[in-house]
Design a protein that fits this description.
mainly alpha, two-stranded antiparallel sheet, two-stranded antiparallel ribbon, 48% helix, DUF1800 domain-containing protein
Length: 404
């Protein structure tokens, strides 16, 4: 027999899973029952539209504004918004910074988001293998220029410290040996595509292994004799700390900022055995997920705030009251920058700090000022999912409007 799902719990589920929703969607989920509602939200992602630009390779600011607007519009209109909130999670976990990634174009970052979408629900190891060969990542952490004469340690270090087992579970020697193993993992333009200053910004880079740059010698990594980057990845993918470390981050993103350790241990087991979709299905069907202490316990990021509010207003594009397309994208990116979260461009390799930092005085004032973009459209605002206990447009000035 299907477990029931109350309307109030359905609004909470939608808000946490997708960061967007309207009353009729919550009602529909409640009618389905818990398991069916969760399965409907965890469907395979609908691909995002292709990105094409008329900008030149030097107009990276314009490309950045274009891919930002394209992604936010996709999140507003896709039938699988849960996948896009997960893309946001992976973007903040497996970070790459647009402004710091020399040699990459907007298309390379757009393709990276497609990788998050393609592998995001599956086994974490498969996503990790794909990201290890992702051109934007290889360029961002300088592995694209790593040669046997001078191995670059950036990717090797962040792979362990931030992406898998976390601090305290590896040595500096492990970093050096891992860096040697990843020498020769680099990027190129596809065969026949123009290169250098003649590069077409609509053609993405691709991974290539350069054997002349690779150190073929034996390395000792975490007590094991290895030769290749693939072996490094397999050791980390099979390490139990990887699933505790990343599983805790997933629980902090979907459940509460400080998840209890017993739940982290259980989540790590589900995550390791079943992948990310199974972890989310397990979490979204647990009583703890709907417990009063976990409701409205996560601060909406600026991206989630903008998407949720525009969706509540029935918008298919984020405009902030602007009509002109060029001015709109500039205003959207400007507003997100003022609130502290620019898509495709986290502040550093650790991603966004999040939490209460989103609600510092200046960023919060920007959020509240954005409400004026909906003046005259208050009756269109359906805030039932956007915030717990919403009761009309005036609710937007309450603290709960900033919480998931």
């Amino acid at each position: 027999m299907a477990r029931p799902l109350s309307y109030q719990d359905a609004t909470h589920l939608l808000r946490r899973a997708a960061a967007r929703g309207r009353k009729e969607e919550a009602q529909k989920l409640a009618e389905m029952g818990l398991e069916a509602a969760v399965d409907s939200l965890l469907q395979d992602p609908v691909p995002a539209p292709p990105y094409r630009t008329a900008a030149t390779t030097n107009e990276k600011g314009l490309q950045h504004r274009e891919i930002t607007q394209l992604w936010l519009s996709h999140w507003l209109t896709t039938p699988t918004p849960t996948a896009e909130r997960l893309v946001l999670f992976w973007h903040g976990h497996l970070t790459s910074e647009f402004r710091e990634t020399q040699g990459a174009q907007g298309i390379d970052f757009w393709n990276q988001f497609a990788t998050f979408r393609q592998f995001g629900y599956g086994p974490y190891g498969e996503l990790l293998k794909a990201i290890a060969k992702n051109p934007a990542m290889l360029l961002y952490l300088n592995n694209a220029e790593s040669k046997k004469e001078h191995p670059n340690e950036n990717w090797a270090r962040e792979l362990m410290e931030l992406y898998t087992i976390g601090p305290g579970h590896y040595t500096e020697q492990d970093i050096r040996e891992s860096a040697r193993a990843f020498t020769g993992w680099t990027v190129r333009m596809p065969a026949g595509a123009p290169r250098g200053k003649d590069r077409d910004p609509n053609v993405g880079l691709e991974y290539v292994f350069n054997p002349r740059w690779h150190d073929p010698g034996i390395k000792t990594f975490m007590g094991r004799q290895i030769q290749s980057g693939e072996e490094v990845l397999e050791i980390l993918i099979n390490h139990p700390e990887t699933y505790r470390f990343v599983g805790r981050k997933l629980l902090a993103f979907y459940l509460s900022p400080n998840p209890p350790q017993p739940l982290v241990e259980e989540a790590a087991k589900v995550f390791r055995e079943g992948g990310t979709r199974e972890l989310l299905r397990w979490l979204f069907t647990r009583d703890e997920f709907y417990a009063p202490e976990n409701r409205s316990s996560i601060v909406k990021s600026p991206i989630e705030y903008l998407v949720g509010l525009h969706y509540a207003a029935g918008e298919s594009k984020i405009t902030l009251g602007q009509k002109d397309e060029e001015k709109t994208s500039a205003r959207v990116v400007g507003a997100l920058a003022a609130m502290g979260q620019i898509p495709f461009d986290p502040p550093n390799v650790k991603g966004w700090e999040g939490g209460m930092s989103w609600l510092a005085e200046s960023p919060l004032l920007v959020r509240l000022n954005l409400i004026s973009a909906f003046a005259g459209r208050e009756k269109k605002l359906d805030l039932e999912v956007f915030m717990d206990g919403a009761s009309g447009a005036l609710s937007l000035v309450k603290p709960e409007a900033q919480l998931l």
